[in-house]
Protein backbone atom coordinates (compact mmCIF):
# COMPACT_ATOMS: atom_id res chain seq x y z
CA UNK A 1 0.00 0.00 0.00
CA UNK A 2 1.32 3.41 -1.01
CA UNK A 3 1.02 5.88 1.82
CA UNK A 4 0.37 8.73 -0.66
CA UNK A 5 -2.91 6.96 -1.47
CA UNK A 6 -3.70 5.82 2.06
CA UNK A 7 -6.17 7.90 4.05
CA UNK A 8 -4.59 8.50 7.42
CA UNK A 9 -5.40 11.96 8.77
CA UNK A 10 -2.81 12.36 11.57
CA UNK A 11 -2.95 15.06 14.21
CA UNK A 12 -0.05 16.73 16.05
CA UNK A 13 -2.07 16.97 19.24
CA UNK A 14 -4.95 14.88 20.47
CA UNK A 15 -8.15 16.83 21.26
CA UNK A 16 -8.13 18.09 24.84
CA UNK A 17 -11.06 15.90 25.92
CA UNK A 18 -9.22 12.66 25.09
CA UNK A 19 -7.87 11.23 28.35
CA UNK A 20 -6.92 7.62 27.64
CA UNK A 21 -3.61 7.08 25.82
CA UNK A 22 -5.24 4.62 23.45
CA UNK A 23 -7.93 7.15 22.61
CA UNK A 24 -5.35 9.90 22.01
CA UNK A 25 -3.14 7.73 19.81
CA UNK A 26 -6.01 6.32 17.76
CA UNK A 27 -7.23 9.86 17.09
CA UNK A 28 -3.76 11.20 16.39
CA UNK A 29 -2.91 8.30 14.11
CA UNK A 30 -6.12 8.60 12.13
CA UNK A 31 -7.42 5.17 13.19
CA UNK A 32 -10.82 6.41 14.28
CA UNK A 33 -12.97 9.53 14.28
CA UNK A 34 -15.90 10.23 16.56
CA UNK A 35 -19.24 10.66 14.80
CA UNK A 36 -21.25 11.35 17.93
CA UNK A 37 -20.73 10.58 21.62
CA UNK A 38 -19.49 6.99 21.95
CA UNK A 39 -19.92 6.28 18.23
CA UNK A 40 -16.88 5.97 15.97
CA UNK A 41 -15.93 5.60 12.34
CA UNK A 42 -13.12 3.10 11.79
CA UNK A 43 -10.83 4.72 9.23
CA UNK A 44 -8.59 2.51 7.03
CA UNK A 45 -5.85 2.13 9.63
CA UNK A 46 -8.29 1.28 12.43
CA UNK A 47 -10.26 -1.02 10.19
CA UNK A 48 -7.14 -3.00 9.26
CA UNK A 49 -6.43 -3.66 12.95
CA UNK A 50 -10.05 -4.60 13.53
CA UNK A 51 -10.12 -7.04 10.61
CA UNK A 52 -6.91 -8.69 11.80
CA UNK A 53 -8.33 -9.22 15.28
CA UNK A 54 -11.57 -10.56 13.80
CA UNK A 55 -9.59 -12.96 11.61
CA UNK A 56 -7.80 -14.37 14.63
CA UNK A 57 -11.15 -14.77 16.38
CA UNK A 58 -12.59 -16.59 13.37
CA UNK A 59 -9.64 -18.99 13.32
CA UNK A 60 -9.83 -19.76 17.02
CA UNK A 61 -13.58 -20.35 16.95
CA UNK A 62 -13.13 -22.62 13.94
CA UNK A 63 -10.64 -24.66 15.99
CA UNK A 64 -13.30 -25.43 18.61
CA UNK A 65 -15.88 -26.18 15.89
CA UNK A 66 -18.11 -23.21 16.52
CA UNK A 67 -19.61 -21.81 13.32
CA UNK A 68 -20.10 -18.12 12.61
CA UNK A 69 -23.45 -16.52 11.79
CA UNK A 70 -25.07 -13.15 12.10
CA UNK A 71 -28.20 -11.99 13.91
CA UNK A 72 -30.08 -8.78 13.19
CA UNK A 73 -29.39 -5.58 15.10
CA UNK A 74 -33.04 -4.52 15.12
CA UNK A 75 -35.01 -6.66 17.55
CA UNK A 76 -38.61 -6.85 18.72
CA UNK A 77 -39.42 -5.95 22.32
CA UNK A 78 -41.51 -9.13 22.60
CA UNK A 79 -38.56 -11.52 23.05
CA UNK A 80 -37.15 -9.33 25.77
CA UNK A 81 -40.53 -9.13 27.46
CA UNK A 82 -40.59 -12.92 27.55
CA UNK A 83 -37.20 -13.10 29.26
CA UNK A 84 -38.08 -10.25 31.60
CA UNK A 85 -35.14 -8.14 30.50
CA UNK A 86 -37.11 -5.52 28.55
CA UNK A 87 -37.66 -3.63 31.77
CA UNK A 88 -34.63 -4.89 33.67
CA UNK A 89 -32.13 -3.71 31.08
CA UNK A 90 -33.21 -0.18 31.83
CA UNK A 91 -31.94 2.98 30.21
CA UNK A 92 -28.93 1.35 28.62
CA UNK A 93 -31.19 -0.09 25.92
CA UNK A 94 -31.77 1.90 22.74
CA UNK A 95 -35.52 1.68 22.20
CA UNK A 96 -37.58 2.69 19.21
CA UNK A 97 -41.04 2.31 17.74
CA UNK A 98 -41.75 1.40 14.16
CA UNK A 99 -44.42 3.15 12.07
CA UNK A 100 -47.08 0.77 13.38
CA UNK A 101 -46.16 1.62 16.96
CA UNK A 102 -44.49 -1.72 17.60
CA UNK A 103 -41.79 -1.49 20.25
CA UNK A 104 -38.33 -2.42 19.08
CA UNK A 105 -34.77 -2.13 20.25
CA UNK A 106 -31.19 -2.19 19.02
CA UNK A 107 -29.47 -5.30 20.40
CA UNK A 108 -27.16 -4.64 23.36
CA UNK A 109 -26.45 -8.43 23.51
CA UNK A 110 -28.24 -11.43 21.97
CA UNK A 111 -29.21 -14.08 24.53
CA UNK A 112 -32.89 -13.70 23.70
CA UNK A 113 -32.36 -13.83 19.94
CA UNK A 114 -30.24 -16.97 20.14
CA UNK A 115 -32.75 -18.61 22.47
CA UNK A 116 -35.56 -17.81 20.06
CA UNK A 117 -33.80 -18.73 16.81
CA UNK A 118 -31.47 -21.53 17.89
CA UNK A 119 -32.56 -23.07 21.22
CA UNK A 120 -36.21 -23.30 20.15
CA UNK A 121 -35.11 -25.29 17.11
CA UNK A 122 -33.28 -27.92 19.13
CA UNK A 123 -35.76 -30.71 19.63
CA UNK A 124 -33.62 -33.60 20.79
CA UNK A 125 -30.59 -34.24 22.96
CA UNK A 126 -29.02 -35.73 19.83
CA UNK A 127 -28.62 -32.24 18.36
CA UNK A 128 -26.51 -31.11 21.30
CA UNK A 129 -24.02 -29.94 22.41
CA UNK A 130 -23.73 -27.17 19.83
CA UNK A 131 -22.53 -23.58 19.84
CA UNK A 132 -22.60 -20.61 17.44
CA UNK A 133 -21.11 -17.15 17.35
CA UNK A 134 -21.19 -13.81 15.62
CA UNK A 135 -19.01 -10.72 15.43
CA UNK A 136 -21.37 -7.84 15.39
CA UNK A 137 -22.13 -4.27 16.37
CA UNK A 138 -23.90 -3.80 19.70
CA UNK A 139 -25.74 -0.79 21.00
CA UNK A 140 -25.77 0.36 24.61
CA UNK A 141 -26.81 3.81 25.66
CA UNK A 142 -24.03 4.10 28.23
CA UNK A 143 -24.49 6.80 30.81
CA UNK A 144 -20.92 7.98 30.32
CA UNK A 145 -19.43 6.86 27.02
CA UNK A 146 -15.73 7.59 27.28
CA UNK A 147 -12.12 6.71 26.64
CA UNK A 148 -12.69 6.26 22.92
CA UNK A 149 -13.36 2.63 22.00
CA UNK A 150 -13.15 1.53 25.63
CA UNK A 151 -16.72 2.53 26.43
CA UNK A 152 -18.75 3.21 23.33
CA UNK A 153 -22.47 3.40 22.74
CA UNK A 154 -21.98 1.46 19.52
CA UNK A 155 -19.21 -1.15 19.67
CA UNK A 156 -18.24 -4.47 18.18
CA UNK A 157 -18.54 -7.69 20.16
CA UNK A 158 -17.78 -11.30 19.48
CA UNK A 159 -20.63 -13.15 21.13
CA UNK A 160 -20.90 -16.92 21.24
CA UNK A 161 -23.80 -18.98 22.62
CA UNK A 162 -23.74 -22.63 23.63
CA UNK A 163 -26.62 -25.09 23.89
CA UNK A 164 -26.35 -28.27 25.93
CA UNK A 165 -28.49 -31.18 27.05
CA UNK A 166 -26.57 -31.77 30.28
CA UNK A 167 -24.59 -29.77 32.84
CA UNK A 168 -21.47 -31.76 31.93
CA UNK A 169 -21.82 -30.67 28.31
CA UNK A 170 -22.16 -27.06 29.40
CA UNK A 171 -19.01 -27.37 31.54
CA UNK A 172 -17.08 -28.71 28.54
CA UNK A 173 -18.38 -25.99 26.25
CA UNK A 174 -17.47 -23.36 28.82
CA UNK A 175 -13.92 -24.75 29.06
CA UNK A 176 -13.58 -24.81 25.27
CA UNK A 177 -14.71 -21.22 24.93
CA UNK A 178 -12.46 -20.16 27.78
CA UNK A 179 -9.46 -21.74 26.08
CA UNK A 180 -10.37 -20.23 22.70
CA UNK A 181 -10.74 -16.80 24.29
CA UNK A 182 -7.39 -17.16 26.03
CA UNK A 183 -5.78 -18.09 22.69
CA UNK A 184 -7.40 -15.03 21.07
CA UNK A 185 -6.10 -12.65 23.75
CA UNK A 186 -2.66 -14.21 23.57
CA UNK A 187 -2.44 -13.85 19.78
CA UNK A 188 -3.77 -10.28 19.97
CA UNK A 189 -1.01 -9.51 22.47
CA UNK A 190 -3.44 -8.67 25.28
CA UNK A 191 -2.38 -9.92 28.68
CA UNK A 192 -5.44 -11.02 30.67
CA UNK A 193 -6.36 -12.55 34.00
CA UNK A 194 -9.50 -14.68 34.20
CA UNK A 195 -11.42 -13.74 37.36
CA UNK A 196 -14.71 -14.87 38.89
CA UNK A 197 -17.23 -12.19 38.15
CA UNK A 198 -20.56 -10.60 38.78
CA UNK A 199 -23.17 -11.79 36.29
CA UNK A 200 -25.10 -8.52 36.21
CA UNK A 201 -28.40 -8.64 34.32
CA UNK A 202 -27.37 -11.82 32.46
CA UNK A 203 -28.59 -14.18 35.13
CA UNK A 204 -26.97 -17.55 35.53
CA UNK A 205 -24.89 -18.87 38.33
CA UNK A 206 -21.35 -18.71 37.17
CA UNK A 207 -19.28 -16.29 35.17
CA UNK A 208 -15.68 -15.41 34.47
CA UNK A 209 -14.32 -12.09 33.30
CA UNK A 210 -11.12 -11.55 31.37
CA UNK A 211 -9.40 -8.55 32.90
CA UNK A 212 -6.55 -6.78 31.09
CA UNK A 213 -4.38 -4.77 33.49
CA UNK A 214 -3.97 -1.18 32.27
CA UNK A 215 -3.57 2.23 33.84
CA UNK A 216 -6.86 3.53 32.43
CA UNK A 217 -8.93 0.51 33.57
CA UNK A 218 -12.24 1.12 35.31
CA UNK A 219 -12.05 -2.11 37.34
CA UNK A 220 -9.57 -3.19 40.03
CA UNK A 221 -8.19 -6.68 40.36
CA UNK A 222 -5.96 -8.32 42.92
CA UNK A 223 -3.23 -10.60 41.57
CA UNK A 224 -0.12 -12.30 42.84
CA UNK A 225 3.33 -12.33 41.26
CA UNK A 226 3.30 -15.84 39.79
CA UNK A 227 -0.12 -15.45 38.23
CA UNK A 228 -1.72 -18.26 40.23
CA UNK A 229 -4.21 -15.92 41.85
CA UNK A 230 -6.41 -13.20 40.40
CA UNK A 231 -9.68 -11.80 41.72
CA UNK A 232 -11.98 -8.95 40.89
CA UNK A 233 -12.07 -6.67 43.92
CA UNK A 234 -15.57 -5.47 43.17
CA UNK A 235 -16.67 -9.07 43.21
CA UNK A 236 -14.74 -9.90 46.35
CA UNK A 237 -16.51 -7.12 48.12
CA UNK A 238 -19.96 -8.18 47.10
CA UNK A 239 -20.25 -11.96 47.04
CA UNK A 240 -18.88 -15.28 48.09
CA UNK A 241 -17.80 -17.81 45.51
CA UNK A 242 -20.23 -20.46 44.45
CA UNK A 243 -19.59 -24.03 45.26
CA UNK A 244 -18.98 -25.87 42.04
CA UNK A 245 -21.48 -28.57 42.70
CA UNK A 246 -24.07 -28.70 39.96
CA UNK A 247 -25.71 -31.78 41.40
CA UNK A 248 -26.57 -30.18 44.68
CA UNK A 249 -26.99 -26.63 43.59
CA UNK A 250 -30.24 -25.49 42.15
CA UNK A 251 -29.99 -22.93 39.41
CA UNK A 252 -29.09 -19.76 41.22
CA UNK A 253 -30.14 -16.51 39.72
CA UNK A 254 -28.57 -13.34 40.77
CA UNK A 255 -31.18 -10.69 40.33
CA UNK A 256 -30.41 -7.02 40.41
CA UNK A 257 -32.76 -5.14 42.66
CA UNK A 258 -33.12 -1.77 41.05
CA UNK A 259 -34.12 1.42 42.66
CA UNK A 260 -37.56 0.35 43.80
CA UNK A 261 -38.38 3.01 46.30
CA UNK A 262 -41.73 3.74 44.75
CA UNK A 263 -44.54 1.44 43.71
CA UNK A 264 -44.23 2.78 40.17
CA UNK A 265 -40.57 1.87 39.93
CA UNK A 266 -41.22 -1.59 41.31
CA UNK A 267 -44.04 -2.08 38.83
CA UNK A 268 -41.71 -0.97 36.09
CA UNK A 269 -39.11 -3.46 37.24
CA UNK A 270 -41.64 -6.29 37.37
CA UNK A 271 -43.23 -5.31 34.10
CA UNK A 272 -46.73 -5.21 35.58
CA UNK A 273 -49.21 -2.34 35.92
CA UNK A 274 -48.67 -0.53 39.18
CA UNK A 275 -52.30 -1.04 40.11
CA UNK A 276 -51.47 -4.68 40.73
CA UNK A 277 -49.06 -3.84 43.48
CA UNK A 278 -50.31 -2.73 46.81
CA UNK A 279 -47.20 -2.78 48.88
CA UNK A 280 -43.85 -4.47 48.69
CA UNK A 281 -40.96 -5.14 50.95
CA UNK A 282 -37.66 -6.72 50.01
CA UNK A 283 -35.09 -7.85 52.52
CA UNK A 284 -31.57 -9.10 52.12
CA UNK A 285 -29.91 -10.66 55.09
CA UNK A 286 -26.31 -9.84 55.88
CA UNK A 287 -25.34 -13.46 55.54
CA UNK A 288 -26.81 -13.50 52.02
CA UNK A 289 -29.83 -15.51 53.01
CA UNK A 290 -32.70 -13.99 51.17
CA UNK A 291 -36.10 -13.24 52.46
CA UNK A 292 -38.43 -11.58 50.05
CA UNK A 293 -41.89 -10.53 50.98
CA UNK A 294 -44.43 -9.01 48.81
CA UNK A 295 -47.91 -7.95 49.41
CA UNK A 296 -50.02 -7.76 46.35
CA UNK A 297 -52.22 -10.03 44.39
CA UNK A 298 -51.03 -13.32 43.06
CA UNK A 299 -50.83 -12.12 39.50
CA UNK A 300 -47.41 -10.79 40.23
CA UNK A 301 -46.24 -14.33 40.37
CA UNK A 302 -47.49 -14.93 36.90
CA UNK A 303 -44.83 -12.67 35.50
CA UNK A 304 -42.46 -15.42 36.55
CA UNK A 305 -40.05 -13.47 38.60
CA UNK A 306 -39.03 -16.41 40.69
CA UNK A 307 -37.50 -14.37 43.45
CA UNK A 308 -40.82 -12.91 44.37
CA UNK A 309 -42.66 -15.21 46.65
CA UNK A 310 -46.36 -15.09 47.09
CA UNK A 311 -47.93 -15.10 50.50
CA UNK A 312 -48.32 -18.87 50.61
CA UNK A 313 -44.70 -19.54 49.84
CA UNK A 314 -43.57 -17.01 52.37
CA UNK A 315 -45.78 -18.63 54.93
CA UNK A 316 -44.47 -22.06 54.21
CA UNK A 317 -40.81 -21.29 53.95
CA UNK A 318 -40.36 -18.85 56.72
CA UNK A 319 -43.17 -19.33 59.15
CA UNK A 320 -41.04 -19.74 62.21
CA UNK A 321 -38.56 -17.10 61.23
CA UNK A 322 -41.17 -14.52 60.43
CA UNK A 323 -42.92 -15.20 63.63
CA UNK A 324 -39.75 -14.53 65.51
CA UNK A 325 -38.96 -11.36 63.64
CA UNK A 326 -42.38 -9.81 63.82
CA UNK A 327 -43.12 -11.00 67.30
CA UNK A 328 -46.62 -11.32 66.04
CA UNK A 329 -48.81 -14.36 66.32
CA UNK A 330 -49.90 -13.54 62.83
CA UNK A 331 -46.38 -13.26 61.57
CA UNK A 332 -45.74 -15.71 58.83
CA UNK A 333 -48.99 -17.54 59.20
CA UNK A 334 -51.52 -14.98 58.19
CA UNK A 335 -51.53 -13.44 54.75
CA UNK A 336 -48.99 -10.72 54.24
CA UNK A 337 -50.73 -7.43 54.63
CA UNK A 338 -49.77 -3.79 54.62
CA UNK A 339 -49.81 -3.34 58.38
CA UNK A 340 -47.69 -6.35 58.85
CA UNK A 341 -45.18 -5.18 56.26
CA UNK A 342 -44.95 -1.76 57.83
CA UNK A 343 -44.38 -3.34 61.18
CA UNK A 344 -41.50 -5.34 59.84
CA UNK A 345 -39.85 -2.28 58.31
CA UNK A 346 -40.17 -0.37 61.55
CA UNK A 347 -38.92 -3.19 63.72
CA UNK A 348 -35.52 -2.49 65.31
CA UNK A 349 -34.56 -6.18 65.34
CA UNK A 350 -35.24 -6.39 61.65
CA UNK A 351 -33.11 -3.33 60.99
CA UNK A 352 -30.27 -4.98 62.82
CA UNK A 353 -30.66 -8.25 61.01
CA UNK A 354 -31.56 -7.25 57.53
CA UNK A 355 -30.48 -4.82 54.94
CA UNK A 356 -33.82 -3.39 53.92
CA UNK A 357 -33.65 -2.74 50.21
CA UNK A 358 -36.75 -0.75 49.71
CA UNK A 359 -35.04 2.13 47.96
CA UNK A 360 -32.00 0.05 47.13
CA UNK A 361 -29.34 1.34 44.83
CA UNK A 362 -28.35 -0.49 41.69
CA UNK A 363 -25.47 -2.39 43.23
CA UNK A 364 -27.77 -4.36 45.51
CA UNK A 365 -28.79 -7.80 44.51
CA UNK A 366 -30.27 -10.98 45.79
CA UNK A 367 -30.13 -14.65 45.01
CA UNK A 368 -33.16 -16.73 44.49
CA UNK A 369 -33.20 -20.27 45.83
CA UNK A 370 -30.00 -19.50 47.62
CA UNK A 371 -28.93 -21.41 50.65
CA UNK A 372 -25.78 -20.26 52.39
CA UNK A 373 -24.30 -23.59 53.37
CA UNK A 374 -25.28 -25.42 50.26
CA UNK A 375 -24.50 -22.86 47.57
CA UNK A 376 -21.70 -20.72 48.83
CA UNK A 377 -18.29 -21.19 50.24
CA UNK A 378 -16.72 -18.29 52.00
CA UNK A 379 -13.02 -19.03 51.74
CA UNK A 380 -11.33 -17.51 48.72
CA UNK A 381 -12.72 -14.01 48.66
CA UNK A 382 -13.40 -13.69 52.33
CA UNK A 383 -9.68 -13.28 52.90
CA UNK A 384 -9.10 -10.51 50.41
CA UNK A 385 -12.31 -8.68 51.14
CA UNK A 386 -10.54 -6.85 53.90
CA UNK A 387 -7.01 -7.37 52.62
CA UNK A 388 -4.61 -4.63 51.62
CA UNK A 389 -1.97 -4.59 48.97
CA UNK A 390 1.03 -6.65 50.02
CA UNK A 391 -0.91 -9.05 52.21
CA UNK A 392 -0.82 -12.75 51.30
CA UNK A 393 -3.18 -14.10 48.66
CA UNK A 394 -5.42 -16.94 49.89
CA UNK A 395 -4.06 -19.51 47.43
CA UNK A 396 -0.26 -19.34 47.37
CA UNK A 397 0.22 -16.71 50.08
CA UNK A 398 2.23 -14.39 47.86
CA UNK A 399 1.87 -10.63 48.31
CA UNK A 400 -1.29 -9.27 46.70
CA UNK A 401 -0.89 -6.59 44.06
CA UNK A 402 -3.84 -4.34 43.21
CA UNK A 403 -4.06 -3.10 39.61
CA UNK A 404 -6.60 -1.23 37.59
CA UNK A 405 -7.80 -3.24 34.63
CA UNK A 406 -10.13 -3.38 31.66
CA UNK A 407 -12.89 -6.00 31.30
CA UNK A 408 -12.19 -7.27 27.78
CA UNK A 409 -14.31 -10.40 27.90
CA UNK A 410 -17.00 -12.09 29.96
CA UNK A 411 -18.23 -15.68 29.78
CA UNK A 412 -21.35 -17.04 31.48
CA UNK A 413 -22.86 -20.36 32.40
CA UNK A 414 -26.40 -19.17 31.89
CA UNK A 415 -28.11 -22.42 32.71
CA UNK A 416 -31.81 -22.45 31.86
CA UNK A 417 -32.79 -18.87 32.65
CA UNK A 418 -33.60 -17.92 29.05
CA UNK A 419 -34.87 -21.29 27.93
CA UNK A 420 -37.17 -21.48 30.97
CA UNK A 421 -38.59 -18.03 30.60
CA UNK A 422 -38.85 -18.24 26.81
CA UNK A 423 -39.86 -21.89 26.56
CA UNK A 424 -37.09 -23.68 24.67
CA UNK A 425 -37.39 -27.37 25.49
CA UNK A 426 -35.94 -30.58 24.07
CA UNK A 427 -36.45 -34.28 24.68
CA UNK A 428 -33.67 -35.85 26.74
CA UNK A 429 -32.43 -39.44 26.31
CA UNK A 430 -35.26 -40.69 28.53
CA UNK A 431 -37.84 -38.96 26.37
CA UNK A 432 -38.39 -36.35 29.05
CA UNK A 433 -38.94 -32.67 28.27
CA UNK A 434 -36.15 -30.43 29.57
CA UNK A 435 -35.11 -26.83 29.05
CA UNK A 436 -31.97 -26.36 26.93
CA UNK A 437 -28.92 -25.42 29.03
CA UNK A 438 -27.13 -22.36 27.73
CA UNK A 439 -23.88 -20.45 28.02
CA UNK A 440 -22.87 -17.11 26.53
CA UNK A 441 -19.41 -15.78 25.82
CA UNK A 442 -18.44 -12.25 24.84
CA UNK A 443 -15.33 -10.33 23.86
CA UNK A 444 -15.48 -6.58 23.40
CA UNK A 445 -13.53 -6.56 20.14
CA UNK A 446 -13.12 -2.80 19.84
CA UNK A 447 -12.51 -2.42 23.57
CA UNK A 448 -9.86 -5.15 23.37
CA UNK A 449 -8.02 -3.19 20.67
CA UNK A 450 -7.83 -0.19 22.97
CA UNK A 451 -6.58 -2.48 25.72
CA UNK A 452 -3.88 -3.75 23.35
CA UNK A 453 -2.75 -0.17 22.75
CA UNK A 454 -2.81 0.62 26.48
CA UNK A 455 -0.56 -2.38 27.12
CA UNK A 456 1.81 -1.59 24.25
CA UNK A 457 2.69 2.08 24.55
CA UNK A 458 6.32 2.76 23.72
CA UNK A 459 6.68 6.41 24.58
CA UNK A 460 6.40 7.74 21.04
CA UNK A 461 3.37 5.85 19.87
CA UNK A 462 2.02 2.33 19.55
CA UNK A 463 4.11 -0.84 19.39
CA UNK A 464 1.38 -3.06 17.97
CA UNK A 465 1.50 -6.77 18.79
CA UNK A 466 2.67 -8.53 15.64
CA UNK A 467 -0.56 -10.27 14.66
CA UNK A 468 -2.82 -7.23 14.85
CA UNK A 469 -0.50 -4.48 13.61
CA UNK A 470 -2.18 -2.57 10.75
CA UNK A 471 0.94 -3.19 8.66
CA UNK A 472 3.76 -5.63 9.35
CA UNK A 473 6.44 -3.61 7.60
CA UNK A 474 6.70 0.14 7.13
CA UNK A 475 9.06 1.20 4.34
CA UNK A 476 10.16 4.79 4.62
CA UNK A 477 11.93 6.53 1.80
CA UNK A 478 13.78 9.61 3.05
CA UNK A 479 14.08 11.57 -0.19
CA UNK A 480 11.54 11.07 -2.94
CA UNK A 481 13.64 12.78 -5.59
CA UNK A 482 16.58 10.38 -5.12
CA UNK A 483 16.52 7.77 -7.90
CA UNK A 484 18.64 5.22 -6.03
CA UNK A 485 16.36 5.42 -3.03
CA UNK A 486 13.28 5.08 -5.23
CA UNK A 487 14.70 2.08 -7.05
CA UNK A 488 15.55 0.26 -3.81
CA UNK A 489 12.29 1.19 -2.13
CA UNK A 490 10.21 -0.05 -5.06
CA UNK A 491 12.22 -3.27 -5.20
CA UNK A 492 11.73 -3.93 -1.50
CA UNK A 493 8.06 -3.01 -1.73
CA UNK A 494 7.59 -5.60 -4.43
CA UNK A 495 9.58 -8.36 -2.76
CA UNK A 496 8.21 -7.93 0.72
CA UNK A 497 4.59 -7.41 -0.32
CA UNK A 498 4.32 -10.96 -1.61
CA UNK A 499 4.59 -12.16 1.99
CA UNK A 500 3.81 -9.25 4.30
CA UNK A 501 1.53 -6.29 4.39
CA UNK A 502 3.74 -3.39 3.61
CA UNK A 503 3.06 0.32 3.89
CA UNK A 504 5.44 2.31 1.69
CA UNK A 505 5.80 5.95 2.64
CA UNK A 506 6.22 7.49 -0.80
CA UNK A 507 4.98 10.92 0.24
CA UNK A 508 6.94 14.05 -0.55
CA UNK A 509 7.24 14.93 3.12
CA UNK A 510 10.14 15.81 5.41
CA UNK A 511 11.72 12.84 7.23
CA UNK A 512 10.53 14.26 10.57
CA UNK A 513 6.93 14.13 9.44
CA UNK A 514 7.39 10.59 8.13
CA UNK A 515 8.96 9.32 11.36
CA UNK A 516 6.27 10.89 13.52
CA UNK A 517 3.60 9.22 11.46
CA UNK A 518 5.51 5.93 11.53
CA UNK A 519 5.39 5.98 15.36
CA UNK A 520 1.63 6.19 15.09
CA UNK A 521 1.35 3.35 12.56
CA UNK A 522 3.42 1.23 14.94
CA UNK A 523 4.46 -1.45 12.44
CA UNK A 524 6.64 -4.07 14.16
CA UNK A 525 9.38 -3.56 11.54
CA UNK A 526 10.37 -0.17 10.13
CA UNK A 527 12.80 -0.04 7.23
CA UNK A 528 14.28 3.34 6.32
CA UNK A 529 15.79 3.81 2.88
CA UNK A 530 18.16 6.75 2.97
CA UNK A 531 21.68 7.89 2.10
CA UNK A 532 23.19 4.43 1.77
CA UNK A 533 20.58 3.10 -0.63
CA UNK A 534 23.21 3.00 -3.40
CA UNK A 535 25.30 0.58 -1.31
CA UNK A 536 22.31 -1.59 -0.64
CA UNK A 537 22.18 -0.58 3.04
CA UNK A 538 19.01 0.32 4.91
CA UNK A 539 18.15 1.11 8.50
CA UNK A 540 15.92 -1.25 10.44
CA UNK A 541 14.06 -0.44 13.64
CA UNK A 542 11.84 -2.79 15.58
CA UNK A 543 8.91 -1.07 17.29
CA UNK A 544 9.76 -2.50 20.69
CA UNK A 545 13.35 -1.31 20.51
CA UNK A 546 14.73 2.19 20.96
CA UNK A 547 17.51 2.07 18.39
CA UNK A 548 17.70 1.45 14.68
CA UNK A 549 20.53 -0.55 13.13
CA UNK A 550 22.05 -0.55 9.66
CA UNK A 551 21.72 -3.68 7.69
CA UNK A 552 22.37 -4.83 4.12
CA UNK A 553 19.44 -5.66 1.92
CA UNK A 554 20.53 -9.32 1.75
CA UNK A 555 20.57 -9.63 5.52
CA UNK A 556 17.19 -7.96 5.57
CA UNK A 557 15.64 -10.85 3.71
CA UNK A 558 16.88 -13.18 6.45
CA UNK A 559 15.58 -10.89 9.17
CA UNK A 560 12.04 -10.66 7.93
CA UNK A 561 11.77 -14.33 7.07
P1 LIG B 1 -18.86 -3.01 31.66
O1 LIG B 1 -18.82 -3.62 33.02
O2 LIG B 1 -17.54 -2.45 31.24
O3 LIG B 1 -20.00 -2.06 31.46
P2 LIG B 1 -20.39 -5.22 30.80
O4 LIG B 1 -20.13 -6.13 31.94
O5 LIG B 1 -21.62 -4.42 30.80
O6 LIG B 1 -19.12 -4.22 30.63
P3 LIG B 1 -20.88 -7.50 29.11
O7 LIG B 1 -22.35 -7.40 29.10
O8 LIG B 1 -20.22 -8.51 29.97
O9 LIG B 1 -20.28 -6.02 29.42
O10 LIG B 1 -20.41 -7.62 27.57
C1 LIG B 1 -19.32 -8.42 27.10
C2 LIG B 1 -18.12 -7.58 26.71
O11 LIG B 1 -18.46 -6.48 25.85
C3 LIG B 1 -17.46 -6.90 27.89
O12 LIG B 1 -16.62 -7.79 28.58
C4 LIG B 1 -16.68 -5.77 27.21
O13 LIG B 1 -15.44 -6.24 26.74
C5 LIG B 1 -17.56 -5.40 26.04
N1 LIG B 1 -18.31 -4.16 26.31
C6 LIG B 1 -19.35 -3.99 27.15
N2 LIG B 1 -19.80 -2.72 27.13
C7 LIG B 1 -19.01 -2.07 26.24
C8 LIG B 1 -18.98 -0.73 25.76
N3 LIG B 1 -19.85 0.17 26.18
N4 LIG B 1 -18.03 -0.40 24.84
C9 LIG B 1 -17.14 -1.31 24.41
N5 LIG B 1 -17.13 -2.59 24.81
C10 LIG B 1 -18.04 -2.97 25.72
MG1 LIG C 1 -21.99 -2.44 31.14
MG1 LIG D 1 -18.93 -5.59 33.73
MG1 LIG E 1 -19.50 -8.08 31.88
From TrEMBL:
UniProt signal peptide: none
Enzyme category, top tier: ligase
Molecular function as annotated in GO: aminoacyl-tRNA deacylase activity; ATP binding; catalytic activity, acting on a protein; proline-tRNA ligase activity; transferase activity
Catalytic reactions on record: tRNA(Pro) + L-proline + ATP = L-prolyl-tRNA(Pro) + AMP + diphosphate
Enzyme Commission number: 6.1.1.15
Subcellular location: Cytoplasm
Entry GO CC: cytosol
Chief subcellular location: cytoplasm
Positions of the Aminoacyl-transfer RNA synthetases class-II family profile domain: 17-465
Alphabetically ordered keywords of this record: Aminoacyl-tRNA synthetase, ATP-binding, Cytoplasm, Ligase, Nucleotide-binding, Protein biosynthesis
A single GO BP: prolyl-tRNA aminoacylation
Listed Pfam families: HGTP_anticodon, tRNA-synt_2b, tRNA_edit
Subunit relationships: Homodimer.
Entry's family note: Belongs to the class-II aminoacyl-tRNA synthetase family. ProS type 1 subfamily.
Domain notes: Consists of three domains: the N-terminal catalytic domain, the editing domain and the C-terminal anticodon-binding domain.
Function: Catalyzes the attachment of proline to tRNA(Pro) in a two-step reaction: proline is first activated by ATP to form Pro-AMP and then transferred to the acceptor end of tRNA(Pro). As ProRS can inadvertently accommodate and process non-cognate amino acids such as alanine and cysteine, to avoid such errors it has two additional distinct editing activities against alanine. One activity is designated as 'pretransfer' editing and involves the tRNA(Pro)-independent hydrolysis of activated Ala-AMP.
Protein's name in the database: Proline--tRNA ligase
Naturally occurring in which organism (per UniProt): Lactobacillus kalixensis DSM 16043
Amino acid sequence: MRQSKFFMPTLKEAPADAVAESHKLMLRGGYIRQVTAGVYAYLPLGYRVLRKAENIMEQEMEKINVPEMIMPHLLPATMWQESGRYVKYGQEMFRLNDRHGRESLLGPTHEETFTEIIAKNLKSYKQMPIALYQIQTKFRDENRPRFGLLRGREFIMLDAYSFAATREQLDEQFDDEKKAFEAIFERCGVKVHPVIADSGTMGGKNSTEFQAPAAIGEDTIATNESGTYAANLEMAKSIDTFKQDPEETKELKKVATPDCDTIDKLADFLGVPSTRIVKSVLFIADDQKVLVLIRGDKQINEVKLGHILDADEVREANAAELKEITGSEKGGVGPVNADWADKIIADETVKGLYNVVVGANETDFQFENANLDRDFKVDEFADIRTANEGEPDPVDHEPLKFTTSIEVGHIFKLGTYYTDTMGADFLDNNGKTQPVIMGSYGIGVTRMLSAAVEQHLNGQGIAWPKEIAPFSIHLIQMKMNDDEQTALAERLEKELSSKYDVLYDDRKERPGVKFNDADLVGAPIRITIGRKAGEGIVEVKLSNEEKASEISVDELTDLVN
